[in-house]
Amino acid sequence: MDKDLFFIQTILSDEMTSHGFPLVYKGPLNHQIMKFFTRMAEEKISENCSDSSVKRKIFHVMVEMLQNITRHSVDYDKREDSIGIFVIGERKDYYYIITANVVKSSEVRQLKESIEMLNKMNKEELNQLHKEIMRTGSISSKGGAGLGLIDILRRTGEKYNYQFHRLDQESYLFVLKSTINLPAEE
After folding, report:
1. pTM of the full predicted structure?
2. All domains of the chain in start order, with CATH
3. Higher model confidence: residue 131 or residue 26?
Protein backbone atom coordinates (compact mmCIF):
# COMPACT_ATOMS: atom_id res chain seq x y z
CA MET A 1 0.00 0.00 0.00
CA ASP A 2 2.79 2.46 0.80
CA LYS A 3 4.15 2.22 -2.77
CA ASP A 4 0.81 3.30 -4.26
CA LEU A 5 0.24 6.00 -1.67
CA PHE A 6 3.73 7.32 -2.42
CA PHE A 7 2.76 7.45 -6.12
CA ILE A 8 -0.44 9.35 -5.30
CA GLN A 9 1.37 11.70 -2.91
CA THR A 10 4.04 12.40 -5.54
CA ILE A 11 1.36 13.32 -8.08
CA LEU A 12 -0.37 15.49 -5.51
CA SER A 13 2.89 17.19 -4.52
CA ASP A 14 3.63 17.99 -8.16
CA GLU A 15 0.13 19.41 -8.61
CA MET A 16 0.37 21.43 -5.41
CA THR A 17 3.68 22.91 -6.47
CA SER A 18 2.55 23.85 -9.96
CA HIS A 19 -1.08 24.82 -9.39
CA GLY A 20 -1.79 25.03 -5.68
CA PHE A 21 -4.55 23.22 -3.84
CA PRO A 22 -6.90 24.93 -1.48
CA LEU A 23 -7.12 21.72 0.58
CA VAL A 24 -5.52 18.29 0.75
CA TYR A 25 -6.31 15.71 3.43
CA LYS A 26 -5.13 12.16 4.02
CA GLY A 27 -6.22 10.23 7.06
CA PRO A 28 -9.21 8.93 8.95
CA LEU A 29 -12.62 10.29 7.98
CA ASN A 30 -15.63 10.33 10.25
CA HIS A 31 -18.61 12.63 10.62
CA GLN A 32 -16.82 15.19 12.83
CA ILE A 33 -13.78 15.41 10.54
CA MET A 34 -16.08 15.72 7.51
CA LYS A 35 -17.94 18.64 9.12
CA PHE A 36 -14.70 20.41 9.99
CA PHE A 37 -13.23 19.76 6.56
CA THR A 38 -16.31 20.94 4.65
CA ARG A 39 -16.39 24.13 6.73
CA MET A 40 -12.73 24.83 5.90
CA ALA A 41 -13.29 24.09 2.22
CA GLU A 42 -16.36 26.28 2.10
CA GLU A 43 -14.41 29.21 3.58
CA LYS A 44 -11.52 28.73 1.14
CA ILE A 45 -13.83 28.44 -1.87
CA SER A 46 -15.74 31.56 -0.80
CA GLU A 47 -12.47 33.51 -0.94
CA ASN A 48 -11.93 32.61 -4.60
CA CYS A 49 -15.41 32.08 -6.04
CA SER A 50 -18.26 34.57 -6.00
CA ASP A 51 -20.76 32.51 -8.03
CA SER A 52 -23.19 31.02 -5.50
CA SER A 53 -24.43 28.27 -7.86
CA VAL A 54 -20.85 27.09 -8.41
CA LYS A 55 -20.20 27.16 -4.66
CA ARG A 56 -23.32 25.05 -4.05
CA LYS A 57 -22.22 22.51 -6.68
CA ILE A 58 -18.71 22.29 -5.22
CA PHE A 59 -20.06 21.84 -1.72
CA HIS A 60 -22.57 19.20 -2.82
CA VAL A 61 -19.96 17.22 -4.78
CA MET A 62 -17.52 17.48 -1.90
CA VAL A 63 -20.04 16.10 0.61
CA GLU A 64 -21.14 13.26 -1.72
CA MET A 65 -17.55 12.22 -2.43
CA LEU A 66 -16.60 12.34 1.26
CA GLN A 67 -19.63 10.18 2.05
CA ASN A 68 -18.51 7.71 -0.62
CA ILE A 69 -15.19 7.35 1.20
CA THR A 70 -16.82 6.81 4.58
CA ARG A 71 -19.50 4.41 3.29
CA HIS A 72 -17.61 2.39 0.71
CA SER A 73 -14.09 1.96 2.03
CA VAL A 74 -12.85 -1.55 2.68
CA ASP A 75 -12.54 -0.71 6.38
CA TYR A 76 -16.07 0.73 6.71
CA ASP A 77 -17.49 -2.27 8.57
CA LYS A 78 -14.47 -2.69 10.85
CA ARG A 79 -14.07 0.74 12.37
CA GLU A 80 -15.67 4.08 13.05
CA ASP A 81 -13.26 5.99 10.79
CA SER A 82 -12.52 5.27 7.14
CA ILE A 83 -9.09 6.06 5.72
CA GLY A 84 -9.05 8.21 2.63
CA ILE A 85 -7.43 10.95 0.63
CA PHE A 86 -9.42 14.04 -0.27
CA VAL A 87 -8.26 16.89 -2.49
CA ILE A 88 -10.07 19.96 -3.70
CA GLY A 89 -8.28 22.12 -6.23
CA GLU A 90 -8.82 25.01 -8.54
CA ARG A 91 -7.76 25.67 -12.10
CA LYS A 92 -8.50 28.64 -14.30
CA ASP A 93 -11.82 27.31 -15.64
CA TYR A 94 -12.89 24.72 -13.09
CA TYR A 95 -12.65 23.25 -9.61
CA TYR A 96 -11.92 19.59 -9.09
CA ILE A 97 -12.37 17.13 -6.28
CA ILE A 98 -10.31 13.97 -6.01
CA THR A 99 -10.91 11.20 -3.51
CA ALA A 100 -9.01 7.99 -2.91
CA ASN A 101 -9.96 5.09 -0.68
CA VAL A 102 -9.34 1.38 -0.40
CA VAL A 103 -11.97 -0.95 -1.88
CA LYS A 104 -12.20 -4.74 -1.95
CA SER A 105 -10.90 -6.47 -5.06
CA SER A 106 -14.28 -8.18 -5.41
CA GLU A 107 -15.98 -4.77 -5.81
CA VAL A 108 -13.71 -3.34 -8.53
CA ARG A 109 -15.43 -4.86 -11.56
CA GLN A 110 -18.91 -3.73 -10.50
CA LEU A 111 -17.64 -0.26 -9.60
CA LYS A 112 -15.89 0.13 -12.97
CA GLU A 113 -19.01 -1.02 -14.82
CA SER A 114 -21.20 1.38 -12.86
CA ILE A 115 -18.96 4.37 -13.47
CA GLU A 116 -18.59 3.54 -17.17
CA MET A 117 -22.36 3.18 -17.52
CA LEU A 118 -22.96 6.51 -15.75
CA ASN A 119 -20.25 8.25 -17.81
CA LYS A 120 -22.05 7.19 -21.01
CA MET A 121 -25.42 8.60 -19.94
CA ASN A 122 -26.72 12.03 -20.86
CA LYS A 123 -28.49 14.28 -18.37
CA GLU A 124 -31.95 13.00 -19.31
CA GLU A 125 -30.88 9.37 -18.84
CA LEU A 126 -29.26 10.22 -15.49
CA ASN A 127 -32.47 11.94 -14.36
CA GLN A 128 -34.50 8.89 -15.39
CA LEU A 129 -32.16 6.51 -13.56
CA HIS A 130 -32.28 8.71 -10.46
CA LYS A 131 -36.11 8.66 -10.52
CA GLU A 132 -36.15 4.89 -11.01
CA ILE A 133 -33.87 4.28 -8.03
CA MET A 134 -35.91 6.68 -5.89
CA ARG A 135 -39.12 4.90 -6.95
CA THR A 136 -37.85 1.36 -6.32
CA GLY A 137 -35.90 2.30 -3.21
CA SER A 138 -33.04 -0.13 -3.80
CA ILE A 139 -30.56 0.42 -1.00
CA SER A 140 -27.28 -1.47 -0.69
CA SER A 141 -26.01 -3.17 2.46
CA LYS A 142 -23.76 -0.14 3.05
CA GLY A 143 -26.67 2.29 3.09
CA GLY A 144 -26.42 3.69 -0.44
CA ALA A 145 -28.28 3.31 -3.68
CA GLY A 146 -25.68 4.79 -6.00
CA LEU A 147 -27.59 8.05 -5.93
CA GLY A 148 -24.52 10.05 -4.90
CA LEU A 149 -22.56 9.15 -8.02
CA ILE A 150 -25.60 9.78 -10.21
CA ASP A 151 -26.37 13.09 -8.53
CA ILE A 152 -22.80 14.38 -8.94
CA LEU A 153 -22.96 13.76 -12.70
CA ARG A 154 -26.42 15.36 -12.91
CA ARG A 155 -25.18 18.50 -11.16
CA THR A 156 -21.79 18.87 -12.80
CA GLY A 157 -22.52 17.58 -16.30
CA GLU A 158 -18.92 16.28 -16.35
CA LYS A 159 -17.79 12.67 -16.66
CA TYR A 160 -15.75 10.98 -13.95
CA ASN A 161 -12.06 10.24 -14.25
CA TYR A 162 -10.99 7.27 -12.15
CA GLN A 163 -8.20 4.79 -11.54
CA PHE A 164 -7.70 1.59 -9.58
CA HIS A 165 -4.25 0.77 -8.14
CA ARG A 166 -3.76 -2.77 -6.84
CA LEU A 167 -2.54 -2.77 -3.25
CA ASP A 168 -2.63 -6.51 -2.59
CA GLN A 169 -4.73 -9.58 -3.47
CA GLU A 170 -7.74 -8.30 -1.54
CA SER A 171 -7.75 -4.57 -2.16
CA TYR A 172 -7.29 -1.66 -4.55
CA LEU A 173 -6.86 2.05 -4.08
CA PHE A 174 -9.79 3.67 -5.88
CA VAL A 175 -9.12 7.22 -7.11
CA LEU A 176 -12.10 9.26 -8.34
CA LYS A 177 -12.06 12.77 -9.81
CA SER A 178 -15.00 15.07 -10.48
CA THR A 179 -14.83 18.54 -12.02
CA ILE A 180 -17.10 21.56 -11.65
CA ASN A 181 -16.79 24.03 -14.50
CA LEU A 182 -16.88 27.75 -13.87
CA PRO A 183 -19.29 29.75 -16.02
CA ALA A 184 -17.72 31.32 -19.11
CA GLU A 185 -16.71 34.93 -18.56
CA GLU A 186 -18.59 37.42 -20.66
Report:
1. 0.80
2. 2-104+158-181 (3.30.565)
3. 131
